């Protein structure tokens, strides 16, 4: 069954020139791009996107980080795309992420972990709508 997920190349990934690397990896896997936009998030969109973490001690830093420069928002499609992209991304903490994953290969700090991928069908539906409200 085809599924859609929201992928972000976070501001650290864009600043480090890793956009092509991320897109190459997901296309090589067989996932397909449906939408793409380079944009700098407003505080409001960032706080909505990460609302589940509102009470966490790192929330303020996370919002500063994710609004701190342009990011690349992607909608990606394919069979079990949500799980497939999370597997490509690797564990949240890049030091624990397996080498061969995006985080495992390119990052060292938990906040600056290069990519985001929706974590469930409910999150994907909410996040795709937040970033691309006009997508059919
Ligand atoms: P994401 O939502 O960005 O795809 O990452 P995730 O599911 O793997 O991890 P999640 O628990 O949802 O955390 C969201 C993002 O917050 C930052 N973070 N910082 N300083 C910290 O302890 C900490 N913990 C998480 C990371 O950027 C993480 O991806
Ligand atoms: Mg998450």
TrEMBL record:
Q: Tell me the superkingdom of the source.
A: Bacteria
Q: Which GO terms describe its cellular component?
A: cytoplasm
Q: Can the keyword Glycoprotein be found in this entry's annotation?
A: no
Q: Where is the active site?
A: 116
> Reaction(s) catalyzed by this protein?
a ribonucleoside 5'-diphosphate + ATP = a ribonucleoside 5'-triphosphate + ADP; a 2'-deoxyribonucleoside 5'-diphosphate + ATP = a 2'-deoxyribonucleoside 5'-triphosphate + ADP
Q: Which SMART domains match?
A: NDK
One Gene Ontology term from the biological process aspect of the record: CTP biosynthetic process
Q: Which UniProt keywords apply?
A: ATP-binding, Cytoplasm, Kinase, Magnesium, Metal-binding, Nucleotide metabolism, Nucleotide-binding, Phosphoprotein, Transferase
* Regions annotated as coiled coil: none
Record EC number:
2.7.4.6
Q: Where in the cell is it found?
A: Cytoplasm
The question of whether Protein transport is a record keyword is answered with no
User: InterPro entries from the xrefs?
Assistant: NDK-like_dom (IPR034907), NDK-like_dom_sf (IPR036850), Nucleoside_diP_kinase (IPR001564), Nucleoside_diP_kinase_AS (IPR023005)
Enumerate the cofactors the protein uses: Mg(2+)
- Main EC class the enzyme belongs to: transferase
Provide the binding site for ATP.
Answer: 10, 58, 86, 92, 103, 113
Which positions fall inside the Nucleoside diphosphate kinase-like domain?
A: 2-136
Q: Which GO terms describe its molecular function?
A: ATP binding; metal ion binding; nucleoside diphosphate kinase activity
The family note in this entry says: Belongs to the NDK family.
Protein purpose? Major role in the synthesis of nucleoside triphosphates other than ATP. The ATP gamma phosphate is transferred to the NDP beta phosphate via a ping-pong mechanism, using a phosphorylated active-site intermediate.
Q: How does it assemble?
A: Homotetramer.
UniProt name for this protein: Nucleoside diphosphate kinase
Annotated organism of origin: Blastococcus saxobsidens
UniProt lineage: Bacteria, Bacillati, Actinomycetota, Actinomycetes, Geodermatophilales
């Amino acid at each position: 069954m085809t599924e859609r997920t929201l992928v972000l190349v976070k501001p650290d990934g864009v600043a480090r020139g890793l956009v092509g690397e991320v897109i190459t990896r997901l296309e090589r896997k067989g996932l397909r791009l449906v939408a793409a936009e380079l944009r700098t998030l407003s505080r409001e969109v960032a706080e909505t996107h990460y609302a589940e973490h509102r009470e966490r001690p790192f929330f303020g830093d996370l919002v500063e980080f994710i609004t701190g420069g342009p990011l690349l928002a992607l909608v990606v499609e394919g069979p079990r795309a949500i799980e497939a992209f999370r597997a490509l991304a690797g564990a949240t903490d890049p030091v624990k992420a397996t080498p061969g994953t995006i985080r495992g290969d390119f990052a060292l700090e938990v906040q600056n972990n290069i990519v985001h991928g929706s974590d469930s069908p409910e999150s994907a539906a909410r996040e795709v709508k937040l970033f691309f409200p006009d997508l059919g």
